[in-house]
Amino acid sequence: MSRTKWAAVVTAVIALGAAGCGSGTGAGAASGPVPPRPEGTGPLQREVVQADIDTSAAAAGAPATDPEWRKVGEEGASGLCVVPFRGFFTEAIPADLARFEDTVRELGRRDWKDAGKKEQKKDKKGKVYESLVVLEQRGWRIVAEYKEVHGTIGLTGFDIACVKEQGLG
Prior knowledge:
The structure is a single chain. By secondary structure, the protein is an alpha+beta fold. It has helices at residues 3-17, 46-59, 67-75, 97-109, 160-165; strands spanning 82-83, 86-88, 113-114, 119-122, 128-137, 140-147, 152-159. The protein contains five helices and seven strands. Strands 1, 2, 3, 4, 5, 6 and 7 form a seven-stranded antiparallel beta sheet that branches.
């Protein structure tokens, strides 16, 4: 599936489950060493994907996911297939591309691999105000998004087989 289609899936999943969410003010906490990878070659468990997303954001100093965002995403129609994360920047943790890039690097330390070309939007001065990166590992895909104008980092994990089975992609 193309990156554009996965971005559309992210939008559809969010629309299905995230209407009416408030913005959070969580801040990421420092994390320890990278957890070991589960043995085997089959798909990762949802809990492993969630831990990778949460600990990567925390290690990069990005804001923690908004609890309401996570709750609505998990309770939505696509909750079986999706691990939602949306961190809202605050005055204490301002939006910046470096935190997003550090989060993506931390995911790489947890064996998540690039699944295509990074997409970025820049202003007339060349400053990146939006960035999209797609990563994959063992049956899962993470769509990582940075949106300066909204002050957010989004890390949405998709169980690829589940998405296809549910007709979401």
